[in-house]
From TrEMBL:
<keyword id="KW-0732">Signal</keyword>
<feature type="signal peptide">
    <location>
        <begin position="1"/>
        <end position="18"/>
    </location>
</feature>
<dbReference type="Pfam" id="PF07676">
    <property type="entry name" value="PD40"/>
</dbReference>
<dbReference type="InterPro" id="IPR011659">
    <property type="entry name" value="WD40"/>
</dbReference>
<protein>
    <recommendedName>
        <fullName>WD40 repeat domain-containing protein</fullName>
    </recommendedName>
</protein>
<dbReference type="InterPro" id="IPR011042">
    <property type="entry name" value="6-blade_b-propeller_TolB-like"/>
</dbReference>
Amino acid sequence: MKFRMLMAILAAPLFLLAQPETEVFVFDLDMAAKSITNPKNISNNPGYDNQPSFVTDSTLVFAYSVHGQPDILFYELTSGYSIRLTDTPGGEYSPTPTPDESSFSFIRLDPDGKQLLYKLGKDKKAEPLHNTLVIGYHAWINHDELLAFVLGEPSTLVKVNTTDGSHKTLDSNIGRSLHKHPKSGKMLYISKSNSDWTINSWDPKRGTIETVTKTLAEQEDFCIHPNGILLMGMGDQLYYSQHGQWKPLANVGAFGIKNISRLAVSPNGKRLALVGELQ
């Protein structure tokens, strides 16, 4: 039912300065066997294609370059069906399904430089979720609250209440990856406060911050498998971490891919979306 609601809406991040030519690839993922297979380039498009986020086990949204301008594309893996969800003078980034799965939120960068976080409403119109914060990336905590990467020097981790507009800074000098842990409910992000970057967790119930593990050297993109395992890439190598140690999972160079960046895993944990460059 929720998916039908989302499809009804669909049918009716940010700073592109010298962005690399990237593609979005989807693999079958088997964490028990520690393998990825059956790669598919679902963007297959010149320009900036990035920031994938799964809606269901077989559908996802991502930023898709159209004449050098990013819009949001919806893609169905089984059929290969796709549809552009946005078409504006500005650019849209970082599409993220809302907690009730009935819509999605995204960043819009307008031609005049204004950059805000929006949500697609039931009338298919974009509604700003906050009118002043310049947000680059975000992850939902619950129906009303989210964590945001707010642009600035340094960047800050901010908890935002989308109902009353209140917000609170939790940390500074952070990375762009923000994720909700599927088991603990804690929010994970990357801290760049020290020379050794770390993945930290913030507990919404207690308000405490703890270190989870170090990142791979100067890498700031990771995702969390439904079983709680962390995934991260560096170069053409994909790694996983379960108990604080990073171990190799797969080399995507064999598939003609290099420079892994964004990652996303399907809700059932059986598919991996990966952003990289063609060799």
